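hey can u check if this looks right to u? its 186 residues, i copy pasted from the old doc so theres a chance i mangled smth
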Amino acid sequence: MAKIIDRFLLFIFSLVAIFAMVVLLLCSFGVIAFEDSRTFLRDVYFDRQTSAIVIAGSCLMLIVAVRLFYLSIRTSSPAIPSIDQRTELGDVRISIDTVENLALKAAGRTRGLKDLKARVKVDQAGLEIEIRTVVDGETSIPAITEEVQSSIKSYIEEITGIPVARVSVYVANVVQSAPAFKSRVE
């Protein structure tokens, strides 16, 4: 939500800056008469309604400018998704990418699987791991998926110490074997 508001403030600030630059250019080229500029400045100094509008607009633009300036100079650390654990010696952070690669490594040990992809989500109960794969079509799909689920669960829990709540396996397709061509000898 804050990013939307900041973008809107940047948009408004840009419009006001563009308008001010256009007015200054028109004054510089003499399109806006000197008498008109003098009348406006006199109203800013002596007319309470005009000066109140200018003060309110200037204060608003100053606040927006300070906010945008703050956003431009603050140091922001990119939020890399990770799993944080506290031990008696300190904190341990394991990235989601690490867990995904460990899941792929565990699944890769199972024969009959090709083109593995993993996605990890963190839940209150533990990790939810989704594996997408293509099978060879020669092994029983329920047997191979059960083997993959148990191997991933035990491997992740052993290596990271993080409980695995669920391992879902999505079999996307069967490997298409290339047709065997017989060579003709004449």
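The two ends are 74 Å apart (CA to CA).
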